[in-house]
Amino acid sequence: MGWDFETEPGYQKKLDWADEFVREEVEPLDQLWGHETFLPRDDTKRRILEPLKAEVKRQGLWATHLGPELGGQGYGQLKLALLNEILGRSPWASHVFGCQAPDTGNAEIIAHYGTTEQKERYLQPLLDGEMFSSYSMTEPQAGADPTRFTCRAVKDGDEWVIDGWKYFSSNAKVASFLIVMAVTDTEVSRYEGMSMFLVPTDTPGIKIERNVGLYGEAMNEGFHALIHYDGVRVPADALLGGEGQAFAVAQTRLGGGRIHHAMRTIGLAQKALDMMCERALSRETQGSRLADKQFVQGYIADSYAQLTQFRLFVLYTAWEIDKYNDYRKVRKDIATAKVVMPTVLHDIAWRAMQVHGALGTTNEMPFFQMIHGAGVMGLADGPTEVHKVTVAKQVLRGYKPSGDQWPTEWIPRKAEAAKAKFAEYLEHEVGNL
């Protein structure tokens, strides 16, 4: 029986190195260019970033989500989870370590489903951090409900013609290519009649109507595009994974993306808890430290309990993915992690903000950014409510209804069964009285 809560010494040494490296070398980048992680690299950024990435590669921690044949280490999801806890503290860290979203998920599906030509054209530059990508799936009228998607791709000779609208295509304005989900067969269900296409962003007919920003960002200066595909022509070899295979491709990508979000969220929530504890020990009011106030102690205890439970569950789910090598078999637990994730981050960041008082609400501290990020995580890669339905359905598959109108644990029937089971002994006992 194997059961261990320790990391093997060799990898723990790498994690310790990563922890110090991110703190000393990467987190300062967040202060210089916190909101520029997906902007094209200028000469200054290259001079700083390239040596950092080279050092990560020397340490064997570059693109750890991928196998050796693609330049990764083949460490698997569990080791990636332990590393991502560290990287989650810094927006720039995942870029320096070659595992930034959404490019990681896009790289994963190209690696899994792409042709040799597609991998040469798109995958290697993506892994090298020399290009960005965008996953163009959701639509204005449908959100994340694929049964309501209307963006069409129609075959015309040796080409496909894409027409329709897509919404919240993150990083489209800086991407070199888009992965577009479109309806290719209206005679079957959407689950069978949609396909994925690799589309360069300079293809004629791609019109970014608006770049939607998140809260606090200027109008039309955000990174989440509303795109009109107006007669966009792509060759037949732009298909990713084959005609009608969009859902198989999407589940591969989204399964990994969801659990990777959860991994990074652990690190961000831990950062909020660290700041809360430091503040509690540093600040005095009404005759004692905040750390001595029972309300604050309650905040710290609740936050520690929430984060520890979430962390252990994410690590378990990562272990399951490595064990089965099939996201579909772990769908219930991936969805559960996705459900729990935004609440954990929101609650801990909110408590930390409260402990910091007025300072916590300002733009001199990162708490509102964390809280807003929790709201985004509740919608990214599918709304929390949809995942709760998935979890419930998956859980219910392990049960069956009772045989009659009474529950299986109905006490009167169980009591009678117990008396019948031990009738011989009970009668003997009565006879001795």
Automatic annotation (TrEMBL):
Phylogenetic classification of the source organism: Bacteria, Bacillati, Actinomycetota, Actinomycetes, Streptosporangiales
Organism encoding this protein: Actinomadura rugatobispora
Names of required cofactors: FAD
Protein name: Acyl-CoA dehydrogenase family protein
Protein family membership: Belongs to the acyl-CoA dehydrogenase family.
Oligomeric form and interacting partners: Homodimer.
Domain Acyl-CoA oxidase/dehydrogenase middle: 135-214
Domain Acyl-CoA dehydrogenase/oxidase C-terminal as annotated: residue spans: 247-396
Domain Acyl-CoA dehydrogenase/oxidase N-terminal: 16-130
InterPro entries: Acyl-CoA_dehydrogenase (IPR050741), Acyl-CoA_Oxase/DH_mid-dom (IPR006091), Acyl-CoA_Oxase/DH_mid-dom_sf (IPR046373), AcylCo_DH-like_C (IPR036250), AcylCo_DH/oxidase_C (IPR009075), AcylCoA_DH/ox_N (IPR013786), AcylCoA_DH/ox_N_sf (IPR037069), AcylCoA_DH/oxidase_NM_dom_sf (IPR009100)
Keywords from the UniProt entry: FAD, Flavoprotein, Oxidoreductase
